[in-house]
C-alpha cells in the first residue's frame, strides 16, 4: 500500500495508495480513477549519505524489498552500496568493477543482483538469504564476471526462470549469458544498430528495449525477431513488465511526468499525465 520515489537529487518521497473504503487495490491496465496517491513525507537522509559522490543522468537505484535494502551505484569508488531503507544508513559497500558502475538489475526472486560497468564487464552478485536486518545484503565475492563487450555496458535485464542475463553496450551489442553458470549464449543487435538505453525481460522470453537515440521502443524474441516497434516521442526514465487482469503489459515512466501502459505489441492502452 506504500511506495517511495527517489528523485534525481536523491531526495526520497513517500506515498501511499488511497482506495475506496472496503476496496483493495488491484492494478489493471484500465485502473479506476477512484484510486489515488497521497504524499506522506519527504526525507533528505539518503542525499546526506551520498554527499557529493552522486553523478547525474542515470538510474542509480534498485530495491531488495524483502531485505529492506536499497542498492545504489554511480559512486566514485566503483562500488555498489547497500542502505537500510528505515534510516538510509550505509550497511555495505562492495567493489569489484575497475570503473564506474553504469546499471543495476535485481532478479524477481531477489536472489541475485547484476551490475554493468564502464570497464565492459557484467558482474553477477549473490544476495545473502537473511531476514530484514542491518547485515550486509550481498556476498563479498561475485558469483560470476561476464565478458564479451568491447564498450561500456549501457543496460541490463535478467530472468531467473529463463536463466538469462542480457546486457547491452554503447557499441550496440546485446549479449546473452546464462545466469547460473555465466556461459556465453549469443550476440544480437537491433536492426537500427542503435544503443539500448533500458531493457526489461518477461518470464515468457519477450525482451523490451528502449533506445534514447531515436526515442523508440522494441519488443523482441530471444532469437532476435522484432515483434513490434513504436515511436514514443518522449524520453523514458523507467520501464517494466507487469501482469494485469487483461494480460501482460508494459509500463513506462516518461521524462515529462507521464505514465503509460502498452500491450506487448506496444499499442498504448492508457496514459496518465
Q: What does this entry look like structurally?
A:
The protein is mainly β and 273 residues long. 2% of the residues lie in helices and 48% in strands. Strands 4-5-6-7 form a 4-stranded antiparallel beta sheet, with no helix packed on it. Strands 8-9-10-11 form a 4-stranded antiparallel beta sheet, with no helix packed on it. The chain has a 4-stranded antiparallel beta sheet with strand order 12-13-14-15, with no helix packed on it. A hairpin with a 5-residue loop joins strand 16 (198-201) and strand 17. The longest helix has 6 residues, at 45-50. The chain is globular, with a radius of gyration of 18 Å. The model has no long low-confidence stretch (mean pLDDT 85).
Amino acid at each position: 500500500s506504500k511506495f517511495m520515489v527517489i528523485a534525481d537529487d536523491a531526495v526520497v518521497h513517500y506515498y501511499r495508495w488511497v482506495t475506496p473504503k472496503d476496496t483493495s487495490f488491484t492494478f489493471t491496465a484500465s485502473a479506476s480513477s477512484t484510486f489515488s496517491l497521497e504524499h506522506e513525507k519527504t526525507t533528505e537522509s539518503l542525499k546526506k549519505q551520498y554527499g557529493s559522490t552522486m553523478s547525474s543522468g542515470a538510474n542509480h537505484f534498485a530495491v531488495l524489498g524483502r531485505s529492506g535494502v536499497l542498492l545504489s551505484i554511480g559512486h566514485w569508488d566503483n562500488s555498489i552500496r547497500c542502505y537500510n531503507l528505515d534510516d538510509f544508513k550505509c550497511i555495505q559497500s562492495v567493489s569489484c568493477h575497475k570503473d564506474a558502475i553504469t546499471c543495476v538489475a535485481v532478479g524477481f526472486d531477489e536472489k541475485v543482483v547484476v551490475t554493468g560497468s564502464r570497464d565492459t564487464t557484467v558482474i553477477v552478485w549473490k544476495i545473502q538469504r537473511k531476514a530484514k536486518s542491518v547485515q550486509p545484503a550481498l556476498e563479498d565475492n561475485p558469483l560470476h564476471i561476464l565478458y564479451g563487450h568491447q564498450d561500456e555496458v549501457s543496460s541490463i535485464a535478467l530472468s531467473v526462470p529463463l536463466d538469462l542475463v542480457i546486457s547491452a553496450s554503447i557499441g550496440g551489442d546485446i549479449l546473452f549469458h546464462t545466469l547460473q553458470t555465466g556461459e556465453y549464449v549469443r550476440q544480437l543487435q537491433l536492426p537500427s544498430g542503435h544503443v539500448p538505453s533500458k531493457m526489461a525481460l518477461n518470464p515468457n522470453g519477450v525482451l523490451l528495449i528502449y533506445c534514447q537515440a531515436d526515442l523508440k521502443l522494441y519488443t523482441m524474441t530471444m532469437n532476435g525477431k522484432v515483434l513490434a516497434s513504436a515511436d514514443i516521442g518522449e524520453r523514458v526514465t523507467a520501464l517494466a513488465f507487469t501482469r494485469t487482469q487483461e494480460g501482460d503489459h508494459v509500463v513506462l515512466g516518461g521524462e515529462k511526468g507521464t505514465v503509460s501502459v502498452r500491450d506487448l505489441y506496444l499499442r498504448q492502452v492508457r496514459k496518465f499525465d
